[in-house]
Structure formats: C-alpha cells, structure tokens
C-alpha cells in the first residue's frame, strides 16, 4: 500500500517512506565508486587523479538539477498541500522544460571551454589531456544528468519513491556493466569509463521523463504549461541552497586538490579522490533522507498541519542522530579495506588514504544535522535561510579551515578541515532552528 503525503508519519512509516530515497542516493554513490575503481585499477593513477581533478567542475554544471529538483518539488508539494493539483502539474511541467533548456546551453558552453578551465585549475601535461577527454564525454550527457538529479526529488513529491529507486538501480547497473566491458574487458581507458557514465546518466534521466510524459497514476504528469517567471524565480531561490551547496563543495574540492598538490603531490589528489568516492556513500544516506522527507514537510506546511510537522521534525532529529553515530563506527572499521579497493597497488598511497579517512570520518557525526537543517528550511520554502546555512557550511567554513589548519598541522589539517567546518555548520543550523521555531511552528 502506497504511503501518501497526507498520512500520519510514525518512525516506522517515516523510515519506510524515505528508505527508497536513501537507497537511491547510496546506490548512486556506489556506482560512482565502481567507476573510480575501474579507472584507478585498470587505467592508472594519473587518469584516476585527472577524473577526481575535473569532477568538481563537472558537478558545478550538473548541480542545477538539484536546484530545480529540491526547489521545484518543495513548491509543487506545497501547492498540492494547498489543494490545487492542476496548478501543481503546470508548475512541475514548466520547471522540467526550463531545466532541459538550461542544461543544453550550459553543456555546450562546458564542452567549448573545458580545456582552458582545466588548465586554469592547474592541470598540465597528460593530466590535462585526461581531464579534457573524460570531461567532454560527460558534458554531452549533461541534460540527462540534470533530469536524473531533478527527478530524484520529484518522484517523492509524486508519491512514487520506489520509481526513483528502480531508475537509479537501472542506471547504476548500466554503469557498472559498461565499466566492466569498456574498461575491464576492452581497453578503452578513460573514454570507456566516461562513455559508461554518460550512458547510465541517459538511462537515469530519460526513463522518468518518459514516465511523467505518459498517463500515469502518480500525483504528477508533464502537461501543457505557460511561462511564469515567478514560478521559476521561486524555484531557483528555494533551491539555491542546494545549488550553493553543490557549487561550494565543488569549488572547495578544487581548493583541496590545489592544497594537496602542494603538500603531497599527485598522491594527495588521488587520496582525496578515495575520500570523495567513499564519503559520497555515507553522505548519500543523509541526502537521501532529506530528499525523502522534504515533500512530506512541504505538504504539511502547505496544509497548515503543524502537529504533524512537529512530529516529523522531532523524529528526524532522532533518526539522523542514529545514522551519524553508526556511520562513524563503520567508517573507522572500514577505512583500510575501503582504501585497499582503490589504491592497494601503491603502499605509500594506501597509507596516506587510510590516515586521511580515519580523520575525515569524524565529520559524519555533524554533517547529517547540517544537511538536514538546510534541507528542512528548503522544504519549508525558506530558501534564504537554507542558502545561508549551505553557504556557510560548504564555502565559508571549509575554505577558512582548509587554509588555516594545514599551516598548523600540515596534511592532517586538510583532512581535519571538513570536520571543523561541519561542527560550525551544525551550530549555525541550530541557531536558525531556534530563531524560526515560532514562525513555522515545528517546535
């Protein structure tokens, strides 16, 4: 039996409803890990470093999907909570069409300017050539990737979380099988890895597009619409925190790579790549949870159901706390075997990666609450508060930490900087939760 946005959410029902979203995000991260595994073990350390070096720039371009998805689904779910389903479908359709047009333009510009951008970031020689080879193939699939990220939020608002999970499984399996064939069996190197990723993104973006374009039994369907600047501005402002978060994370990753090149050389960039691949899996659980709960929060806020909103907020704090402690324990135990998967062929790099992961993993204690705090205000259609939390968390605090701490602690300061930044972000989120408690009535 499908769980509806209008239902009363106990701990059990909240976990059941968000589990597909959590699994969806975790599996997305896992097939990214598989991509890194094949590049590192079958193509080499320099191509692996190149992929991790150019990936932040590619993520900056693709993160508009998160903006349209989180900002748009919050607006659409709120409209449904207010009882206007027809308007909600028109809003949904406009947002999807606008995201397609925007991503086509951005992808084309990215292909044209990729080489000078990679060179400006510090890539040179063979590493620069590898960045361009991998990046251009990925950029051709940018519109599909944007749709994939966008629909991860909209399938929840449509009360079809299992659809999102099924699509993610299909895309992930496609990527893993093609990685095995194009990199492991046929020696196509970076071209094979990039092609596998691009095709999987096409699967993840086009399947839900077809589903919503055809008659279906969900709450949402692509229909005719008319242009509304107000809807698009509201979507972009409301989703600006997720846009800012992804842009800032990618920008900070570029800074991390530059610092690590300075302190540890190519090994440092490769070790950071291991952290990012594995860290994505852990962060994905938090992101999946807020993606799953956001439409429920938006719906109940739109329906002025304050008691249900209070219950969801309090239960979420408990659930996020349980996730946080569990993740730190798992990360500490699995630091060596996870690092071994990627860089077991290089003893020095393996030692550096293990030490980095042991320090870095303590960030999971705080990251969940920071991510939930930002996503919670996005769901309440308070894009400004959400953006402030994300801006401070992913840009200001991390940049300050990664500049200052290495001066005091060397390379360990780079790994510790994220832990310090997450601690500060939780403190800021807690202040906003307290300040806005009477306005939104969640406490």
**Count, helices:** 17
* Class based on secondary structure composition and strand pairing: mainly alpha
- Identify low-pLDDT runs: none
**Apparent shape:** globular
Total count of strands:
0
Helix fraction?
A: over 70%
Beta content? under 5%
Mean pLDDT: 86
Walk me through what this model shows.
- There is one protein chain.
- 86% of the residues lie in helices and 0% in strands.
- It has 443 residues and is an all-alpha fold.
- It has one domain.
- Helix 2 runs antiparallel to helix 4, helix 3 runs antiparallel to helix 10 and helix 10 runs antiparallel to helix 11.
What's the quick description here?
The chain has 443 residues and is mainly alpha-helical. The chain is 86% helix and 0% strand.
